[in-house]
Design a protein that fits this description.
Oligomer: heterodimer
Mean pLDDT of chain B: 96
Largest interface: A-B, 17 and 20 residues
Number of domains of chain B: 1
CATH architecture of chain B: 3-Layer(aba) Sandwich
Strand order of the largest sheet of chain A: 2-1-3-4
Radius of gyration of chain A: 14 Å
Low-confidence stretches of chain A: none
CATH topology of chain A: Rossmann fold
Radius of gyration of chain B: 15 Å
Strand content of chain A: 15-25%
Shape of chain A: globular
CATH topology of chain B: Fructose Permease
Order of helices and strands of chain B: EHEHHEHEHEEEHEEH
Helix content of chain A: 40-55%
CATH architecture of chain A: 3-Layer(aba) Sandwich
Largest sheet of chain A: 4 strands, parallel
Order of helices and strands of chain A: EHEHEHEHH
Number of helices of chain B: 7
Low-confidence stretches of chain B: none
CATH superfamily of chain B: Phosphotransferase system, sorbose subfamily IIB component
Number of domains of chain A: 1
Distance between the termini of chain B: 36 Å
Largest sheet of chain B: 7 strands, mixed
Mean pLDDT of chain A: 96
Distance between the termini of chain A: 42 Å
Strand content of chain B: 25-35%
CATH class of chain B: Alpha Beta
Strand order of the largest sheet of chain B: 3-2-4-1-5-8-9
Number of strands of chain A: 4
Structural class of chain B: alpha/beta
Number of helices of chain A: 5
Shape of chain B: globular
Chain lengths: 130, 159
């Protein structure tokens, strides 16, 4: 099983998950983290904890909202510390990316899924159409 | 010139790059931190947050003390950032007149007590604040320009 850890500002992580679940139903193994009111050290610890080893876990995809943000920085630092489970960090998480993750994670190995869902998230950005 | 010296454990982030940058028309950020300055990897992470059109650097306390007068004299509109009061104290101890320190964000974690929703301090941090206050440094808590400042020296008190 590949796990997702969403690390976002405000309510975004939880909102993304509930919105995605409205479309495809329950998505297991997704952990939502908000940086609201938390010291970066705490956010880092929460990511490391969320990405910790558990039976059958083959990889953890950490999806942060903003490149360059403290969420992203904490994710990068957590990935560097590591948990023994392969970890990848992507930014710009959107509904398309999360849906792609939920639909493809059982059919792909960890690095392929990481690249595919990132590409799917990117493909969801279109326009402008005037 | 140095327009603001700020304590913020998130360093260069949204409140800084959007709100403060807009209010003060900033075009330069200097992060002062011995640990970060010693790691190219960490430095790159911090600098990735600097918006296009700005210059940003991560330097040691010793370098900051050396560069301070140049920073004040040049035409760049600069914010100096530290992630802890300990770094601020080190800068001060190396002979820099800090004058006023903006306190932006030190958030909840084990051992810290709440003074404002965005200012939580442990006992060592309170002691460092008191030291700075006694030394004549003004500590103004103000996370974004749209809010009014709070005198942190008065808030923390002597005891």
């Amino acid at each position: 099983m590949i796990r997702a850890v969403l690390v976002c500002h405000g309510e975004l992580s939880a909102a993304l998950l509930t919105s995605a679940e409205e479309i495809v139903g329950h998505i297991p193994e997704v952990i939502c983290i908000s940086n609201r009111g938390k010291s970066p050290e705490i956010v880092r610890q929460e990511i490391i904890h969320a990405a910790g080893e558990s039976a059958g876990l083959s990889g953890v995809l950490v999806m942060a909202d903003l490149f360059g943000s403290s969420c992203w920085r904490c994710a990068m630092e957590a990935a560097r510390v590591g948990t023994g489970v392969p970890m990848a960090v992507v930014t710009g998480v959107n509904l398309g990316m999360l849906l792609s993750f939920s639909q493809k994670r059982d059919n792909m190995d960890f690095p392929t899924l990481a690249s595919t869902m990132t590409e799917d998230g990117r493909r969801g950005i279109n326009g402008p159409v005037f | 010139m140095i327009l603001l010296v700020r304590v913020d454990e998130r360093l260069i982030h949204g409140q800084v790059t959007v709100a403060w940058r807009g209010a003060l028309d900033l075009d330069a950020f200097a992060v002062v931190d011995d640990e970060l300055a010693g790691s190219d990897w960490e430095k790159d992470l911090v600098l990735a947050a600097a918006p296009e059109g700005t210059v940003a650097e991560v330097v040691t306390v010793a370098d900051a003390a050396r560069l301070w007068d140049d920073w004040k004299a040049d035409t760049r509109r600069r914010m100096v950032l530290v992630q802890s009061f300990a770094s601020a104290r080190s800068i001060f101890a190396s002979g820099v007149d800090l004058g006023s320190l903006n306190v932006g964000g030190l958030h909840k974690r084990e051992g810290r007590k709440e003074f404002l929703p965005y200012v939580w301090l442990d006992s060592a941090e309170m002691e460092t604040c008191r030291y700075l206050c006694r030394s004549g440094v003004t500590l103004e808590a103000r996370n974004v320009p749209a809010t009014s400042g709070v005198n942190l020296c008065a808030r923390i008190g002597d005891s």
